[in-house]
Amino acid sequence: MAQSYSLFVARESFVHRLNPLTKLTLTGLLLVSGLFLPGIWTNYLLFVGIVLPLSAAAGVTKQLVRSAWKIVLPFAISLFLIQGFLWPGGTPILYVGPLSLKSEGLQFAVVSTGRILMIVSSFLWFSLTTRPDHLMNSLSRIGFPSNLAYVIVATIQIAPRFQSRAATILDAQRARGLETEGSLRTRARALVPLVIPLVLSSLIDVEERALAVEARAFNRQGPKTFLIELPEAAWEPAARWFMVVLMVSILGLRVYLAITRWRS
Amino acid sequence: MHVRVADLTYTYPFGVQALKGVTLHIASGESVAIVGQNGAGKTTLVKHFNALLRPGSGSVWVGDWDTRQHTTARLARRVGYVFQNPDDQLFQSKVLAEVTFGPRNLGFETERVEALADMALNMVGLDHAAGQHPYDLSPGERKRVALAAVLAMDTPVIVLDEPTTGQDFIGVQRVGEIVEHLKAEGRTVLTITHDIDFCAEHFQRVIVMADGAILLDGESRQVLAQEEILAKTYVEPPQLVRLAKQLGMAGVPLTVEEFTNAHQGWLEASK
Amino acid sequence: MIQLMQVTYSYPVTSRPALREITLEIPTGQFCALVGANGAGKSTLAYTIAGFIPHFYHGNLAGSVLIDGKETSQVPLSQLVQQVGLIFQNPFNQISGTKFTVREEIAFGLENLGLPRDEMEARIQATLSLVGIEDLAERYPLALSGGQMQRVAIASVLAMRPQVLVLDEPTSQLDPVGSREVFAAVRALIVEGGITVVMIEHKLEWVAVFADRVIALVDGALAADGDPQEVLTDETLVGKTIGQTRYTRAARQAQRSGYWPQDRQLPVTLEQAVDGFRESRGTPAG
């Protein structure tokens, strides 16, 4: 069973020592850049020029590239095939039997894959270098509701348990003669005996956990303190503001370009 | 129905080798308890009997069926497996529906299904609750519903995974009575248990496991007297066995009656 | 100290009371075991002492429940949990699920209380050593064994410095190793002194060894209250609603045949049984 759904990899690095809010803002900047900066090859340049060095600085390049590849490749393949061959009209550049590969379609596929690459790799970089509870810690300090923070981190930690319980239920029902493989009808009939025990026993667990955290004063009115101190370097707050300004500028640039294009 | 295990090994996908070459033969109608510390491989072994797990190497036979050739649903005809947590099974809105689920999956005719359900509910003492929603019952009662649901499948082999955990005194007694009933019917009854006194009172044979292998396998009387070997897998002998040993009594009493008889003999000997 | 006077309680939407006119007093520092059949009201009584009844479960509570002289219904639950700690059966469901080390897990309750950092660190260190889990401090809580998790839960609750610790069948889901670890941890708390323990348990052999006092409930009412050896050999209860150790059963058989020393109480532990049977060797039959 996985330890938790957190992708976090512990390392001693400059990146790991950055405050979670700084990393969150940087991830936001990367996302905005990936989605709104013009240019066909921009995202690939960003990936190679910014994301990969950031991963290297954190010592997580191997994990990032491996996971990104697994996620992005299926999208890339289907985009290239579908958009490439099925682009309406357009300029054919290659013939494959009765079908033709269109250059506009390919261009679209390249741009879209680039966007997906930036989105996925930014999130991966963030998840690999930030502990979820530290993130919630720093968000709570700036006013994020603590109940919501609790639910988010607890889900990440407890989800594997949910998964292994689902496997146990599957075993238990199969042991009562339930067929789970074969026709669609067989599988559909197997759903109710699998889903209901999962839901019911999870509800019981939720109630027990609610009692347990109540017994640890979770619902006490009043400010909470933090055992872990998350230090930040003096330049970090300023850097965050600067990144926010950049994000706004990129959005502004995009709006400007859209207006001028519409005008012409 | 007998169960045969030949040189069984099994390694979990995440790398742990849970069984390191287990060989054993359980004859038809035997009552066997499997004991040992958590992680010894007890559940891993027993999950091979209905093909929930497939051998890494070696083979497991239930009667004349090689478990590698059958699905779990098929083997459910021969091996009834009662899981430890009833909440991993219960999904119907009525107890009766829960108990008839198994036999219906096995394709029995309606009269047989009804008869088996009645018999099973009777055996666990829940006839009165047939029309109730399982979740309106207490956790102990739900455990009995899950047991009835498997008993109703009328299998020649029954596996009980920690049947007394969380039960009160009356519940444990009832489980003991059910085990005796199943034995009287000639079924092969296997259990994994931490309750060594329960084990001594109802099971004729004990298999002690540690680290994926069998440390001891034999008649309860012989196995439960070997304190040093049991201690290796954090198993303590039953209360009466410990008492007899401390008093210097000969023999290994498994029940209060046996102790009483041995005690009288011990008193005579001291005169 | 805990005082209950004529406490009667029914859960919401039920007519049959789960507790019936319970009156008892538990002095500070006592280890009190609570026994009885499933459904007898043990957990209900535990939740009532901890204040979850009536605050969490509502329902109909009559009578008086006093912790340190104050009515629990008048004190907010977030304050009550600092006076009475509650440990449940399932070790896994007591791990908060938001912390990545045991040390931080123990801090969870203290953070909720808004304690300053150095106070938290001092309490965490003290509790780790009191419960004997210093070696687990940096471990991931959800990767521990049942017995280890249960001890972490105990430490997490203890760090809040309650005067009373209520444990609802803390070993029922644990193997013998885990059970022993939990009993040893609770015993260490008694030895340190000061804390009152109320433990619901079915493992009578352990109760007999550790408890100062045994309270038996039958159908929501007090059926017996006293010395472990007295209550756990009481013929009106034992074998009918609560179990008995094999030692008691064997000795009772011997007693019926006249083979048990006349003035000797029936045993509930191995030691008591050995002593009694040895003495009987010198006693002629009938």
Write the layout of secondary structure elements.
The complex is a heterotrimer of chains A (264), B (271) and C (286).
Chain A: H1 14-17, H2 20-36, H3 42-58, H4 61-86, E1 92-96, E2 99-102, H5 103-129, H6 132-141, H7 146-174, H8 184-214, H9 236-263
Antiparallel strand pairs in A: 1-2
Helix pairs in contact in A: 2-5, 2-9, 3-5, 4-5, 6-7, 7-8
Chain B: E1 3-11, E2 17-26, E3 31-35, H1 42-46, E4 57-62, E5 65-66, H2 72-75, E6 79-82, H3 95-105, H4 110-124, H5 139-151, E7 157-161, H6 169-184, E8 188-192, H7 196-202, E9 205-210, E10 213-219, H8 220-223, H9 227-232, H10 239-247, H11 256-269
Parallel strand pairs in B: 3-8, 3-9, 6-7, 7-8
Antiparallel strand pairs in B: 1-2, 1-4, 4-5, 9-10
Helix pairs in contact in B: 3-4, 3-5, 4-5
Chain C: E1 2-10, E2 19-26, E3 31-36, H1 42-50, H2 52-55, E4 60-67, E5 70-71, H3 77-80, E6 84-87, H4 102-112, H5 117-131, H6 146-158, E7 164-168, H7 176-192, E8 196-200, H8 204-210, E9 213-218, E10 221-226, H9 228-231, H10 246-256, H11 270-281
Parallel strand pairs in C: 3-8, 3-9, 6-7, 7-8
Antiparallel strand pairs in C: 1-2, 1-4, 4-5, 9-10
Helix pairs in contact in C: 4-5, 4-6, 5-6, 6-7
